[in-house]
Amino acid sequence: MDADAQSTSTSTTATSRAVDLTAVPAIPGAPKPDAVIVGDKITRKFGGLTAVDVDHIEIQRGVITALIGPNGAGKTTLFNLLTGFDVPDSGTWSLNGGSLQGVASYKVARRGMVRTFQLTKVLAKLTVLDNMLLGATGQRGEKLLSALFAFRWRGQEEENAARAHELLTRFKLDAKRDDFAGSLSGGQRKLLEMARALMVDPELIMLDEPMAGVNPALKQSLLEHVKSLRDEGRTVLFVEHDMDMVRDISDWVIVMAQGKIVAEGTPQAVMQDPAVIDAYLGAHHDTDLREMDEAALEAEAQAELEAQADGKATP
Amino acid sequence: MTTTPQQRTAPAVQAARPHPQAITSLVLGVAGLTLTAGITSPFAWWKGQQALAAIKDAPDQYRGRALAQIGRVLGILGTVLLVVWLVLGFATDVLPVDVGQVFKTALNQALGPNAIVYALAAIGLNIHFGYTGLLNFGQAGFMAVGAYGLAVSVVILETPFWLGIVAALVAPVVLALVLGFPTLRLRADYLAIATIATAEILRLAFGSVELKDAFGGSNGLTGYASAYQDLNPYGGPLDLGFVEFSQRDLWSVTVGWTLVGLSLLLVWGLMRSPWGRVLRSIREDEDAVRSLGKNVFAYKMQALILGGVFGGLAGLFLALKQASVVPADYSTNITFFAYTALLIGGAARVLGPLAGAVIFWFLIAGLGSFFGQATSGPDPLMPTFIMDDTQASLVRFIVTGLGLMLLMIFRPQGIFGDRREIAIDGR
Amino acid sequence: MLQRLLTLLALLMVLLFPVAAAHAGGESESPAPSPSSEPAPRPDGPYVTVRLVDKDNDDAPVAGVTLTVVSEAGEEIASAPTDADGRIIVPIPALGVYTVTLDEATLPDGIELSSSVESEIEVRAILDGANGGLFPIGTQEVTTVSFAERFVTSLTSGIKFGLIVALAALGLSLIFGTTGLTNFAHGELITFGAIMTYVFNRGLGLPVILAGAAAVLVSALFGWVQERGLWRPLRKRGTGLIAMMIVSIGFALLLRNVYQYTIGSSRKSLSQYVSQARTDYGPISLADKELAIIVIASVTIVIACVLLLKTRLGKAMRAVSDNPALSASSGMRVDGVIASVWILGTALTGLSGVLLAINSQVNFLMGFKLLLLVFAAVTLGGLGTIWGALFGSMVIGIMVEVGPLFGVPSSIKEVGALVVLILVLLIRPQGILGRRERIG
Amino acid sequence: GDGDTTEPSAGESTDSSEPSESSAPAETGDGVLTFGSLLPETGSLAFLGPPEFAGVDLAVQEINEAGGVNGEDVVHVRGDSGDADSGIAPAETDELLAAGSDVIVGAASSGVSLTVIDAIQAAGVVMFSPANTSTAFDEPPYDSPDLYFRTAPSDILQGAVMANLLIEDGRSNVAILARQDAYGETLAEQVAMNLENAGSSVATTVFYGENAQSFDSQVDEIAAAGGDSLVLIGFEETATIVPQLITAGAGPQDIPTYFVDGNTADYSEGGSTPLPAGVLEGTKGTIPGADTGGEFQERLLGLNPDLDSFAYAAESYDTVIVSALAAVAAGADDGESVGAAIVDVTIGGEKCTTFADCVALLDDGADIDYDGVSGPIELGELGSPTAASIGIYEYKADNTIEAVDYISGQI
Amino acid sequence: MSESTTTTPEREAHLAAAGDAVLRADALIGGYLPGVDILNGADLYCNKGELVGIIGPNGAGKSTLLKALFGLVKVRTGTVVLDGEDITNMRADELVTKGIGFVPQSNNVFPSLTIEENLEMGCYQTPQKFPERFAFVTDIFPRLGERRKQRAGSLSGGERQMVAMGRALMMAPSVLLLDEPSAGLSPVLQDEVFVQTRNINRAGVSVIMVEQNARRCLQICDRGYVLDHGRNAYTGTGQSLGSDPKVIQLYLGTLGAS
Lengths: 315, 427, 440, 411, 258
Ligand SMILES: Nc1ncnc2c1ncn2[C@@H]1O[C@H](COP(=O)(O)OP(=O)(O)OP(=O)(O)O)[C@@H](O)[C@H]1O
Ligand SMILES: Nc1ncnc2c1ncn2[C@@H]1O[C@H](COP(=O)(O)OP(=O)(O)OP(=O)(O)O)[C@@H](O)[C@H]1O
Ligand SMILES: CC(C)C[C@H](N)C(=O)O
Ligand SMILES: [Mg+2]
Ligand SMILES: [Mg+2]
What we know:
Mean pLDDT of chain B: 81
Strand content of chain B: under 5%
Largest sheet of chain B: 2 strands, parallel
Strand order of the largest sheet of chain D: 7-6-8-9-10-13-14
Order of helices and strands of chain D: HEHEHEHEEHEHEHEHEEHHHEHEEE
Number of helices of chain B: 18
Number of strands of chain B: 6
Distance between the termini of chain B: 40 Å
Low-confidence stretches of chain B: 1-15
Number of domains of chain B: 2
Number of strands of chain D: 14
Order of helices and strands of chain B: EHHEHHHHHHHEHEEHHHHEHHHH
Bound molecules: adenosine-5'-triphosphate, leucine, magnesium ion
Oligomer: heteropentamer
Largest sheet of chain D: 7 strands, mixed
Shape of chain B: globular
Shape of chain D: globular
């Protein structure tokens, strides 16, 4: 049944692409027409360090939102907070209007919000296929009582396996299907992590640097897949340092720095925002390094770092 | 300057079929142990070895690793038996040791009630540790509550026998719940200490003078097992030549191996299911499983309870076959030995606990008997300045310790385990 | 948390000081068995005998007090005054229960039965000869010790025990912290230190101090040999940690039985310092050997900790524990680091065995019995952290010895410590000084 | 047991037990009277193993020299009972049973015996302990006539002797430190009860666990209780406790201390567990058993010249002789028949003191009353001696013991 | 030494150019599990002062190749030669003594050590150089200086990567092996890493770097290898590879190439 959902939806939903974000003001914490996630005053401190201090955040349904920002800006921590893997010091947030405060991480996932991990978490001594199958939801065979009776879950299992195989092929992991996941290379783990999250068939998928370490050619083909997810009506939120990817697929970009949201907007707009360029992109990130004057580049990096340091001094 | 990357040949997955030699090996192996008195066993060993190699080389084409493995193990066992039988003939004349007796003692224990206790306890540990990764070092505690569940109900509370059995099965569930709620969020090594501590607390409490009225102090409790013996349908002992059981043991062995068989069936059924997959995933990385929407805690609790019930069952069976419940029987050592049995067989393998328990007792009893004989009598095989009869009873533990070490060194995956799995995790 | 605990302890010490000091002088004299001056003739068959002595008056016999002996059937057997020795001897016709009544009116002036004592007792005569009874006279002088004083004594014992545990825990923690090995043979390493002391002392005739020092050296050597001969080859084969843990269980079984094989199962005592009386140091009274144990253990622990903090070894250890491959990539000789840790760890553990041998005795099971407490200590503090091991050991040591004062049944006093362990893990699943891991 | 009702001459009962002639060491009742000894080779009572084994071996030797039982030599299979802590007794028992034991001699420790008693009885094998003194064996569920017997008197007697000894010595406030097991608990209880009835008070009773690693808190508790004497009921751990008592100011030289059968051992320089000379001087201890006399000890030394203790050797010897006599009387060697005849050969009838003499009497059709080396051995209904002697020993300056008195009594 | 592999003209041409390379690997065959080869005869050389880039699909064996050079993966046949000395399967810490530095792709920090201690481990063999090198590294990554007492295990992904890179820079090696040093870093820091790598290289350090940021990698490297299925698929100068349409189609993709 789950497998059907995917194949049918591809055909039906070219409509959701229509979500128009042009009307949304490009200010931090901008309200969205149809927000799937709404968060308020979320803070998380580690000792003296405020890792996350988000005043207001909304994620639009049915689009691809990119979350970018310098290293240590608090992106992963925000993911952890939203998905119940970490507990904030304060704040409220909700998914589809339902509060997620104090909701256990697995329940968050069950409500349709699934995340991947920046440092991959593969199940090393399970095969790649088993890793995938674990992702499937609503499995009858996962209940202790029906697990004993194979006829109750056989059919479902086969459907899931077919779907898993499809995804694996797409992620170029099909040849590794029966290998232990622990024997995958760094990039393959990233791929598996993402493919497994897709097995959950989530409404909102949160990817933490999904393409770091993925080969460019493969990345390109995967981006198509991510777009198709959106076209199926799903919401995608991802963290990425790869600007090509951000530019190519995101509909909306949120910029974080030092725990705060400092800018929002369409990719084009954000990438031209001088503040973002200064703090994050660097003026020459599109230039060929061979042609570039090193001194200039270094000065620029220095400038960014100083800006960060200043920001830290006055929190 | 350029070479084209060559395409990987991905073989059709459906083509995988059991390797024919695996089946041959299994058949020969079984035959070796039953019909042919060991003659076919070396062939079973050989075929099994071949099949394993073939399957390893082409894992895509062949299935049946388990079959080949079993065939091979049976083959090895049968070959050993064969050699022993051959050696017996003249050795008994040469050595002042009755090798036949040694062998018989060993086999008696390997197939007797003690092995059943360990097999059941190890089945429980297999669920805890092998599949779910819960490092439960308190299996002795589960066994104790199982045994005391029966004894206390029948002796102290004077309930009928069958209610005692029910109590013995409910008690481990309660213990699992009480223990699980606080400790299941602990990291594996902390959990190990917490469970070991709980088991010791239970043992000490059961044996304490202060609670003597409820648990009988360190004398323990007796006088509950007659109902069990009354059910004994056997009229006399059984002597098959290579093993023999008294009338009592025969009944215990029947009940016990039936329980073990049913338990293994249950474990097999569960572990091939998606439920089992979730458990194995939890063993690898809890957070990943959580992120996929599984209630990790609930699964761990189910595993703890299920494994605990098997532990309780082991305790219950021990209590029944031994007809006494004594706190000293439930010391940490028994947990260690159950782990030993599990790992000899291979963790996370359905048949691991069974094979392990049988081999463990075979060694312990065989060595004990051999050295016992070698040091006793007017003209012992071992000169007394090397080993006297007291020391002889230690040698089996020394050898067991050594054996366990060697096993882990040369075959860390146990008899049924998968070498590749072990190789996966570098630290 | 730690601070508050320490303050509390300090406060208690201060409070208890005067109380304990006050008592320090009063020692109970030891009454020697009192031989009857002039034994009265004893009959051949069974008889009931009662002797009266005045506790207030240096156990002087009390003569002329009338005692009546009545049989179970109510028949009076005899009624007679005590003789010059304060005794009556009444032959009885048959074995059974006899009631003896003292006529209080016949007590000499100024002499009274101890309060709380009845004037009637029951003698169960089942012996063929004397079946004795007793009426305590005078104030029963029982020198019981105040709670505060007992607390101080227990606390001292606890600290001593805790320090011994701490040495072993430190050794365990070092090895665990570096190699990740949960070493179930650690108890046997404690035993090793003790047995070596015994061997050097009784076997080679060295004085205990020298024997102990030699034992520590041999322990260190044993650690190195183990590492070279067993653990390193295992690591080279890529053996997993669980498998290594099982190897350690097997190794423990092996060692334990080899010990028993060689020295036997009985307890062995050293040739010196076995029985030492205590001297008073302010509120605390300690025997010389106890003082030595406390001092040696503390000094060693301090030295070891400084060593680990000040030298590269300490960091290298943690680095190796985190990631051996990366450590090697940083230019560390991983095997060398691990070997040093084994040497240091087993030396510390061996010392703990030496001190335990001096404190109690040598037995092949001594370390095994201590193992669970050592594990508990290491866990309580937080696995793999050095301060955690020390802190945990002190908590465990003190809990074990002080617990009985607060109602823990002393036959199962270890339970108290284990319960504390579990409670602590409830509140801090990572141990008292452990750290949580970051997710994601 | 119900030995009184069964005629000893009921030789025909052999047919019912149908020994399978051919199969070698199989079931109980195969024609060969097999003794399995379940005695401590290891563990905390290991120091009692040698004399006990020597006793069994001596008896077996003498029986076979006298022509065996029912025409066959008797056989002795050794087993190690370990201690309750090592828990090897049950498995060892299975092995002894598998070896076709008809009578199991043992165990020494009451705690160990309780772990195997049901299994042995259920196998229809006699369990005959030379050293169990716990009262537990005369209480439910072991109070019914069954297959359990012992030659050591229950601690009711040792408790009374000990209490009496204390009172005779003028102790009026006694502290008790006891090992927490079947033996320690019941003996402590008996001593305390007898003391209190007789007018003395008990300052405190402290138990320590068999596994205890540190005894500090218990020792402190004893030292703090202020008793005028101490009864120390334990096994081998005594060697650790005594020095700690001395350190705590409550050693035998500070507070008169009394030992019991579990720890009245040789603590001299030559023994296995030496204590410094002089620390035990004057300490008294009780061990069940009559004066065995030099001649018997000579015979034991002939078998095992290394013996340094003779505790329970006589009792062990007697268990074997009594069982053998019972087998002769019953004309069968299966456990049930032997068990049924045991009580009868120890009471009522013509007195005899050696196996050969007794067999001769039995052959004449007489009813016999065997009087053993360890005492008159009058087994009561419960299979325990009803009359016995308890030896009182005192430590000399070199920590060896010397018998000062033997007191006999009835239970 | 290379008899086991088929000799193709390309391969011969490639090897002929090797000349007196500092580090040279010939026909490496090896892997993690017995019987499973990941490297199927990869060749590689790096001349003195050269910056060599390796790219290729996921699972091609790039990391494995670096580990094999560094003695962390068993080389079954083939040799690794450093300055004329055979260093095949040599212990990692000896290689460090010989001047090779290595930054692994994953698990590249010591989580329970602080940042400062992590960097200290970088110059484990030469502790006296610590202050000077530390200043150098914190100059490049000031964040590491600010947070020197933070445990590396609690760092964000990018911060970890800085620590990993920093540790290698502490070593001052003569040959540096980098496995995806830019992964997880913000764009500006990625650029910084590439520039620094080039600077180090220009200062005379031979560098071999594996990268998935292929565009940047090929921009700065002197020579590049494309690895696939454990053997060299293409080799050439950075520029020629970056513009080879086949390479682009198979490995680089067109995204962002603009
Ligand atoms: N458990 C922790 N203890 C202390 N500091 C922490 C902890 N977790 C995160 N931090 C700090 O909080 C800040 C935010 O971390 P986070 O992982 O959210 O960054 P990020 O935006 O995901 O960065 P990157 O792009 O590098 O992944 C970092 O500076 C990090 O060092
Ligand atoms: N520890 C391991 N055990 C077994 N096989 C492994 C192990 N690590 C990697 N492999 C296998 O080796 C092959 C090459 O892995 P490697 O890590 O070298 O790839 P890579 O080229 O670095 O890829 P990526 O770009 O994704 O990092 C992969 O197929 C992988 O499955
Ligand atoms: C051998 C004896 C010390 C045994 C002791 N009498 C007991 O019953 O446990
Ligand atoms: Mg991050
Ligand atoms: Mg890689």
